[in-house]
Amino acid sequence: MTLGISNSKNSNDESVSKQTNFGISPVAGVALKDNFVAGASLNGGFSNYTYSNQTSQKGNNFGAGVFARHYKNLGKSGFYIFLQNSLNASFGEQRQRNTNSSDQIKINSFTAVVSLYPGISYAATQKLHLETGFNNLLYMNYSHEKRNNTNPAYADTRTNSFSLGTSLNNLSSFYVGFRMLIAK
Questions:
Q1: Which pLDDT score, from 0 to 100, does residue 60 have?
Q2: Residue 38 and residue 31: Cα distance in Å, rounded?
Q3: Residue 119: exposure state from Cβ atoms within 10 A (0-12, 13-18, ≥19)
Q4: pLDDT (0 to 100) of residue 171
Q5: HSE (CB half, 13 Å, CA atoms) of 141?
Q6: Residue 39: exposed, middle, or buried by beta-carbon count in 10 A (0-12, 13-18, 19+)?
């Protein structure tokens, strides 16, 4: 499971901005055979941003994914290398508004990501594995966004994008975590 919470406030003589984010993603998998795990994940979150009580933006997202992880035992050391591939999709909605007018922007989005990443796992106990890896080492991303404006002076827009990439130059994709193994 991944859980993230953040809260920040920035101020100077002219402005104050506040931002709050929350996200959760429970994950469950089943060992289908030796050294092969398949599973699913859910994700959800919300965000809230205000700027000097003039502009606000609220958003939420939810989604799901599936993954397959292949392990290779490195002798009898308790270490394993793994390769995980996954497919995730999410839907989101954001609402932006200016408190000085009735203008509002509503943004609906859909994103689908196929990713591949390697890692190393250590069996600290029979039921606890410590691991590290590079999330999204390789990825393919599709996104669609529809932006509706309540002000007729601004046109509604639709955007589609596709990207293929790697995150080799970004250490923020490097993670350290653990997996709890639950047996019958």
A1: 97
A2: 7
A3: buried
A4: 60
A5: 15
A6: middle
74-108, pLDDT tens digit by residue?
A: 999 999 999 999 999 999 999 999 877 778 999 99
Three-state secondary structure call for residue 45: strand
In this structure, what is the dihedral angle of CA atoms 35, 36, 42, 47, given to the nearest 10 degrees? 50
| Stated length of the chain | 184
Residue 78: other Cβ atoms inside 10 A: 14
Cβ distance 148 to 93 under 8 Å?
no
Report the C-alpha gap between 135 and 129 in whole angstroms.
17
Name the DSSP letter for residue 77. Answer: S
Fold of 2-180: Porin (2.40.160)
Angstrom distance (rounded) from CA 95 to CA 60 = 9
Residues 6+ away with beta carbon under 8 Å from 153: none
How far apart (Å, rounded) are the C-alpha atoms in residues 112 and 46? 19
